[in-house]
Amino acid sequence: MKLADRSVVVVGSGFGGLSTACYLADAGADVTVVEKNEQVGGRASVLERDGFRFDMGPSWYLMPDVFERFFGHFDRRPSDYYGLERLDPHYKLFFKDGDEMTVTADREATKATFEEYEDGAGAALDAYLDEAEETYDIGMEHFVYTDRPRFRDYVDWDVFRHARGLTFLGSMQDHVAEYFDHPKLRQVMQYTLVFLGGSPKNTPALYNLMSHVDFNLGVHYPVRDDEEDSPGGMGVVVDGIAEMGAEMGVEYRTDSEVQSILGSAGNFRVEVEDGYLRSDFVVSDADYAHTEQELLPPQSRQYDVDYWESRTYAPSAFLLYLGVEGDVDPLAHHSLVLPTEWNDHFDGIFEDPAWPEDPAYYLCVPSQTDDAVAPEGHSNLFALVPIAPGLDDDPETRQRYREFVLDDIAENTGVDLRDRIVVEERFSVSDFADRYNSTRGTALGLAHTLRQTGPLRPGHRSSEVPGLYFTGSFTTPGIGVPMCLISGQHTADALLEDYGE
Predict the structure, then answer these.
(1) Are 195 and 57 in contact (CB under 8 A)?
(2) 83 Cβ partners below 8 Å, 6+ apart?
(3) In the prediction, which pLDDT does 459 show?
(4) At what angle do helices 481-499 and 64-72 cross, to 10 degrees?
(5) How is residue 382 annotated by DSSP?
(6) Which PROSITE patterns match (predicted)?
(7) Which residues of 160-197 are buried (b: 16+ CB within 10 A; e: fewer)?
(8) Which of 18, 152, 191, 269 has the most crowded CB, counting CB atoms within 10 A?
(9) What is the pLDDT of residue 182?
(10) Alpha-carbon 198 to chain mean position
């Protein structure tokens, strides 16, 4: 279908917005992307200070097949815009009892490592990953790439036939326990739930597919092929998608916060700080709740305040972006620091919100792979502690927790950063709310609980305003860069189905 000579304003330039813009421009629409901040990318912003370059948001390039499919729709390839370096090791784990584990790209080596913890765990890993691969193949084809926004869309023999092989009910915690007894091996198989904004107790077992993503498809790092000594990272992917969109005619307007969305199909008026934009259609990649509660008049809202207050939100985060003198060995490009017992941390996010006293957290050191992200003789590092959305993060609390995190890193990895920090920036709950208009300061959106999966997530179409659509992590298929790219296609398809020629 086509949208020849029809205009669309896309509010927000996260991966969902950038993706939707590309699909609609390819269909012939005149697309303008309006971005609140100084750069496109949404949460995938880039922070540059004194020769250091930090990915502020996503830092794992996972599911390369989704990116291939996305660019392939437009007869292009990711390699037309950026290169990829496969990381080996994938990541390193530091357990707080002094134990360490390295997960490499070598399946046999990983199986041998698992066997060191539990007899038979190597074979169990093979069985688990075989199931995860099957779940991935079926789930992606029939429940991710195929949008099923309504319950009646599941009343289909094809759905029933393929769903028989999937585990929809039950938690990831229980599912992993069927394969592994050792608590550390269970943690290794469950940590990827962080990418979905959930916990082992509230994420459906369906998401065992993430282990296929991790172990089989691998972890990659984007690099800029066409420029020597130019830093890589997820910002390179943002630039590539935006460049492709521009080639198809997409216009980008940064530093242009949307104040309101008025009108309906064929006659929208999008208010920005310096006036109004007229368009036939509007797609919002801004925070869904913010769009409904702040940008739309009351009569145009699908959901009331009680609905948004009753949702389960993915974690926020406490982040330290650090430029450090010298090296930070033995940290890997991706490192995880895990307490022996992590249920208390997850409970402090989803059950009884509080700053974690014994946190599980993530350390990203891209300078272990990419010399260009830090000045010579320095390291680039950020620490990310998942925390409950909505926590009070006043300056005193941030300072206290900063000291705590630096102490914890030194104690559990052996890397003392304190006297070597030359650049430091902090980012937490209130920053997510201020910079991204994020509800409760969530870093990701709606968590992937059983009650917030598939048709139970907010829809791509507004039920109240004809011509208004939504994309991004609040919608299907959900959280994560690859999912947001796919969400962009679902949103564009819905608009084309409704109004395409």
Answers:
(1) no
(2) 222, 223, 224, 225
(3) 92
(4) 30
(5) E
(6) PROKAR_LIPOPROTEIN
(7) eebbeebbeeebbbebbeebbeeebbbbbbbbbbbbbb
(8) 18
(9) 95
(10) 12
On whether the CB atoms of residues 457 and 446 are closer than 8 A, the answer is yes
Residue 145 has a pLDDT of 66
**What is d(CA 96, CA 411) in angstroms, rounded to the nearest whole number?**
8
CB 26 within 8 A of CB 248: yes
What pLDDT shows up at residue 147? 62
**How would DSSP label each residue in 317-343?**
EEEEEEEEES--TT--SEEEEE-S--H
CB 422 within 8 Å of CB 325:
yes
Confirm if 84 and 258 have CB atoms less than 8 A apart. Answer: no
Take residue 219 and report the two structure tokens written for it. 């972890």
How much is the pLDDT for 487? 96
Predicted local confidence at residue 170, as pLDDT? 67
Question: What is the rounded distance in angstroms from the CA atom of residue 381 to the CA atom of residue 421?
Answer: 10
For residue 353, what are the CA distances in angstroms to 289, 331, 345, 350?
21, 30, 9, 6
CA pair distance 283, 251, nearest whole angstrom: 14
What is the predicted pLDDT for the residue at 274? 87
Q: What are the chain's domains?
A: 7-44+55-83+230-311+446-499 (3.50.50.60), 111-215 (no CATH), 221-227+313-436 (3.30.519)
